[in-house]
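Quick start: what a row looks like.
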Amino acid sequence: MTTCVARRRAFLGAALAACLVVGTAGCGRYAEGAEVTVLTPPPVAAGHPPGTVTLPMGTEVGVAVKKVQDTIAANGGVVLVTVDNAADASNVGATVPANTVVIGGAAATGLPMLRTSQQAAAALPERYLVHQTATGAVQLLYNGPDYVAVVSGVVDLAATTPFAQSVTRIADQSTGTVGNQKSAPLIGVSPTGFLKVAESNASVPATVARLTTEVKSAGEAVVASQDLATGSGKDGPALRATTSILVGIPLLTSPLVTAAPTFGLELPLRFVVYLDDKNVTQVGYVDVGVLAVRHGLKADDPNVVKLAAECDRLAKIATG
């Protein structure tokens, strides 16, 4: 056990130290303050985005989705939201094979990571994508715990282990799989290339209100919202004000899911509004270019550029 823990600590430390920044230029800065203007997409194995784990789940999508939902609940977790990306695509005139993401888990397993880095709010709770391949096979695709740890900037095993154990247990029980699950290599994955951050001129509640109002005004959807700070001090230090908002933009995201079905794992898009350690409100949002490259798409693809521009626009409105 000691050897396994030491290896995981060394792996996470090396991944963070490497800081292989991959993304697109845009407004704002990255979470650790780095400005990025020139980026090179890494090689990606089709259907195996860096840091993901893929497991078989039979041939019935509905059965597989229900199994994931039930397993999350059986392990003391809550399903935050289930999103049918194929249905959303159909509503805007696109055709996508069965593609549903279940987001959820036990809040307590992610709290240690959130206490270490509020950036983790953009990667929690875990996402489980149930999708159907061209052959009809149903697969479960999820972010490996080490990927979540790296993009969150958290390498402390005391903080990451509860989450890692929970995610692995839910995935294994959902699929009936046992053994050590291996994720696709963390090519191009780093904490500096995941989240873009912009400073707000208002409080966290006011900034959240501006963001949600603009999303709705644009005909988009606030799919879910979580106040992560309330109740967080029960078994440890309370979080500073932190709210996670999941935003659905099917008109712009469906072309990406059509081109790369695994991109459904990244939906809905994530915005995190939080009070930092200097008592300044920040808006963090995932870099669409980085996400696209992770799934084998080009950062300068017109559809990627459009979606990235919309996220930048929403962030600008939210921050004032």
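That is the whole record. The CA atoms of residues 200 and 319 lie 4 Å apart. Residues 157-175 form the longest helix (19 residues).
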